[in-house]
# Entry
Amino acid sequence: MNTTPGLVCAHHHLYSTLARGMPAPPHTPTKFLEILEQIWWRLDLALDPEIIRWSAMLGALEALENGTTAVIDHHESPQSIEGSLSIIADACAEVGVRVNCAYGVTDRHGSEGAARGLAENDRYLSEGGKGMVGVHAAFTCSDETLQAAADLALRHQVGVHIHVGEGTDDHDAAQRLAPLATDQWMIIHGVHLEDDHGLAGTVVHNPRSNMNNSVGYARPARFTNPIALGTDGIGADMVEEFRLAFACHRQDDVTATPETSWQWLAAGWDLFPEAIDDRVTWNYDPMDAWHLAYTPGVRPVEVEIGDEIVWQNGESTRVDAAEIRARAAEQANRLHKKLADL
# Structure
């Protein structure tokens, strides 16, 4: 069997696609909070509509190239909030990739900034966009903002998409969020959660990002919550993310098998069920957990989303990949110059 449903990236930051090669931060960060302050919180301040669009276009194209037909995205652009989710959704639609959008609400830019983020989630969902209510992380939000996000999600009958316990700075997140969380919530990272944290929702494991930020191993097998796999913005190669998730699990527990990590990958279909009807034909057979755990270089040869073949013979059938890469490179240069000037 070398055909699977479309894969799902359960947590992405499409806006980070153009971060590659960005200028070094003013000082070398040595702690997770410093990484946020000196890299990612500076990056999101530099985003504008054109950068957002081409970052999403390139990120969607790269997802397609790796057999990922559905992306659950978490976005933040404090200087360009209004309409940002529609820009991302339209870019993904042009490439042909399914997307679920959320804007990450935060009080880092004051109560007005939080209100604008809530309004963008409300606007997008009210207009029929597929998405959730985003929150950056509990430690960057007041209790009032967290309550407002939870209430908005209930009103739209969706979940909240939020980073939880990624670093030690978010140590009291579970206590603050437990009264609000529902089974529809997406709990991203969970590295520093207790085993019995009491939060409802799906925990999304991002092994490569956790290693990159040196925040520790989440040990997701310890949780009773459903577990899914995301990339936290480092591409959308979900076969590779599965392979790394297994390696981390195996290092922690020599009795671990790749079947567990494959179950985490398959949980994406519960979060984004439309992807089950997509079809990806791969260059490798069989597509099962034990083979894939030890086989590099597995790539799709054809991708069908809905009733349309969107990837065939090594290229997109809908868009010009060379043009997307060229336009994305132009916007990356703009982004990097803006960062250098901050």
